Amino acid sequence: MKLAFLIRDLGHGGAQRQLVLLAKGLVRESHEVSVIHFYDGAFRAELEAAGVRTICVGKKSRWDLLGFFFRLIQATRRIRPDILHGYLAESNLMALFLKPLCGFPRIVWGVRDSQTDAHLWGILGRLSFRLNCLLARFADLIICNSKAGRDYYAARGYPPAKMHVIPNGIDTAHFTPRPKTGGRALTFGLVGRMSPMKDHATFLHAAALDPNAKFVIVGSGDEAYAQQMRDLATRLGLADRVTWLPAQSDIPAVYASFDCLVNSSAFGEGFSNVIGEAMACGVPCIASDVGDSAWIIGDKSHIFPAGDHEALAQCMLAFQPHNPRQRIVEEFSVEKLIERTNRLLSKKVLWFTTGLGSGGAEMMLSQIIRGLPELQHIVISLTGGGKHADALREAGISVHSLDMPSGKPTLGSLWRLFKVVRQTKPDVLMGWMYHGCLVATIARFMRFKSVPMIWNIRQSLYDLKLEKRGSALVIRALAWLSWLPQRITYNSQLSAQQHEAIGYRAAKTQLIPNGFDLAKWQPGTPIRARIGRFGRNAAMKDYATFIEAAKLITQKHPEAQFIIVGAETGTLNVPPNIQLLGERHDLPELTASLNIAVSSSAFGEGFPNVVGEAMACAVPVVATDIGDTRWVMGETGHIVPPCDPSALAKACIGILDAGITRDFAARERIEGQFSLPSVLKSFNTLLTTPLTDAPTQQRTQLPTYQPCVE
Fold first, then answer.
1. Which residues are bridge partners to 562 per DSSP?
2. What DSSP element (H or E) covers 325?
3. Collapsed DSSP state (helix, strand, coil) of residue 625
4. Are 43 and 359 in contact (CB under 8 A)?
């Protein structure tokens, strides 16, 4: 990702320090990062040493407007960023104005305060504030460093739907605990510039109510205000208990002299770096309930109402030493800042799927999305509900259901689709299964912008006559439209060949097989002579052949017990030694308990998940030669013709006669060829790199047997 930050200057300041930490971290994440700044500053050398490109536009004076803007255009056009990220109000406006002049990048605004002081800037400041409020809706994303800032600006016209909070990051490698350097008396310190906003008066009045503690005030600024505070300390009888220090360069050493840091700000705080730094140094904090201080500290007993010196005094008198560093490490470190920003700025993938029920395709979709947390994912399900919808939402993924009746579009569902597509502004469209691919194609035209689109086909295609009439029409329509997607991905070699044969563009084909979570699918303790068939009750699964084979197996091995697991299997007519367990949520355990796993499909299989799952559990497999079953199994297990109960029974009897209960070669094949990490890596590359020509991939031979239809 090519990212350019836009900021006024690179001088010493809280916003500048955060930008430096973030830019350096994003470079370590392999992003191409540039910083365009209006004025030079001390941080420039640090950025360049870390591999960040810096461009100083050099604003010469307040009235250097046309020349400055022309130089700014030249700088951004040289970079051509994917994302242009403004930092602070005037840079945010400039980023928006530059958008049509440098390739229409995504525009990100950075809000670094919780309350504007634009009224202090004069007419130009007030005008800038009003323009920001009016134009904020045109930014693609607005990142606030505090909840308080988000709420303040949302109340003044910023679009809440585009606003996200990413708190500042504290450099926990620099701000670390040091040996305490203070005396025996309990010491409370206040660090901050000399300004009425910091409300030193409340701190001093509270100090007067604590007769035993000592107090340190560190900071420079308004000298007239500072003298007023020193005079107040004298009047309160605190002259010998308050130490006044100017701003210090070695802040961790300052924190080491405190037992507790106090932040008594009256207003204006967003994310208080001082509180985060002190806590990272192992120093507990007490703070007024201003900005995000309560969130950072995480302990209500250390929070008091702003301006209430008596409440502050009670907090100080009740203070108990403790080490709060771990909270900063876990929630507010630089690593967390980079991780959160990286994810928020990453590509936004909009997935379209027929449904999120219990099928193998739906399970694989859920695994891929949850396995790629570095991307932003939004899922649109054409139908409603499904067990994987809940799992995705629990993982923080946005899921929208169009609630189409039996997958048939309605005006209401199309309107909901239009709203989601327009609001989310995805960077990539990903169709999952036939109907999902068709709706992704419709959404591409709703976006009114050229957006890369990928299709994913999940089943084999022997004969269109075997498909429902509506599905057959969709399949043919996709063949005609197959020039539109940048890639057509298949989880099955056979599926790719079959679809190419009816007109799907071969040049766009990419094979990405299913992957299996080997920590989830593991060998267990098998139950002797237990034979299982897992899958929903559908014609393509051919349960009739499995049931007939079970009867033949029972004649030779009367001790054999059979289980059928899957949605809508309860209506099957089976003999007494076949248990119908219906849809289950303990499939790894059930699979590992099998002596033999059977796949009896007659047609329609692409990449058979149940075969791979059984192999991962080291369960011997007997499967019909449909789809890519032969490719998945390799030299393990037994391949038999479809719709042949005798052949299926013979293979199972052979395994039982030999006393075989485990096939560890099968697990080794899954580990080597079809692990989940390798599949996630392939999808990550597909979704994050420019989509040029599809890679050339070797394919194995077609199945020996042709599908059968009863």
1. 531, 578
2. helix 325-331
3. coil
4. no
Q: Distance between CA 54 and CA 120 in Å, rounded?
A: 30
Terminal CA-to-CA distance of the chain, rounded, Å? Answer: 53
Spatial separation of the C-alpha atoms in residues 230 and 530, rounded to whole Å: 85
Dist. CA 542–CA 565, nearest whole Å? 14
CB 477 within 8 A of CB 471: no
Residue 60 has pLDDT above 90, yes or no: no
Taking a C-beta distance cutoff of 8 angstroms, is the pair 416, 446 a contact? no
Residues ≥6 apart with Cβ < 8 Å to 622? 596, 597, 598, 599, 637, 638, 640, 648, 651, 652, 655
Chain centroid offset of residue 513 CA:
23
Cβ–Cβ contacts within 10 Å for residue 322, how many?
11
Token digits of residue 665: 């070669």
- For residue 46, the tally of other CB atoms under 10 A from its CB is 16
277 near 254, Cβ under 8 Å?
no
Task: Report pLDDT for 434.
Answer: 94
**Which of the four pLDDT bands, split at 50, 70 and 90, describes residue 15?**
confident
Q: How many C-alpha atoms does 627 have within 13 Å on its Cβ side?
A: 29
Number of neighbours of residue 376 by Cβ within 10 angstroms: 19
DSSP characters over 342-401: HHHHSPEEEEEES--SSSHHHHHHHHHHHT-TTSEEEEEESS---HHHHHHHHTT-EEEE
Q: Which two tokens stand for residue 123?
A: 């007419």
The tokens describing 181, both together, are: 């350097």
pLDDT digits (tens, 9 = 90+) for 371-400: 998 898 999 999 887 888 988 988 889 999
Instruction: From residue 534, give the alpha-carbon distance in Å to each of 192, 197, 206, 356, 581.
Output: 66, 67, 71, 18, 10
Tokens 């057509």 correspond to what residue? 488
Bridge partners (DSSP) listed for residue 640: 624
All residues at 6 or more sequence positions from 368 whose CB lies less than 8 Å from its CB, including other chains:
679, 680, 683
Q: List strands edge to edge, sheet with 260-263.
A: 242-245, 214-218, 187-191, 260-263, 285-288, 303-304
Q: For the CA atoms of 23, 29, 34, 35, what is the dihedral angle to 10 degrees?
A: -10
How far is residue 347's CA from residue 324's CA, in Å, rounded to a whole number? 35
Tell me the two tokens of residue 604. 């329609």
Cβ contact 484:453 at 8 Å: yes
To the nearest 10°, report the CA torsion of 239, 242, 244, 245: 150
Tokens 């806590």 belong to which residue? 279
Question: Parallel, antiparallel, or unpaired for β 428-432 and 453-457?
Answer: parallel
Q: Which residues pair with 263 in a beta bridge?
A: 287
Residue 35, burial from CB neighbour count under 10 angstroms (0-12, 13-18, 19+): buried
- Identity (one letter) of the amino acid at 417? L
Amino acid at 460: S
How far is Cα 708 from Cα 710, in angstroms, rounded to an integer?
7
Rounded average pLDDT over 247-260? 93
Helices (H), 80-169: 89-98, 123-135, 147-154
* Cβ contact 608:623 at 8 Å: yes
Look at residue 701 in the predicted model and tell me its pLDDT. Answer: 53
Phi, psi for residue 334 in degrees, rounded to 5: -60, -35
Global confidence as pTM:
0.68
Closest CA to 254 of 361, 180, 328: 180
Assess contact for 508 and 529: CB atoms under 8 A: no
More confident position, 182 or 516? 516
Beta bridge partners of 400: 380
Average pLDDT, the chain: 90
Amino acid sitting at position 337: L
**The three-state (H, E, C) secondary structure of 46-87, written as one string:** HHHHCCCEEEECCCCCCCCCHHHHHHHHHHHHHHCCCEEEEC
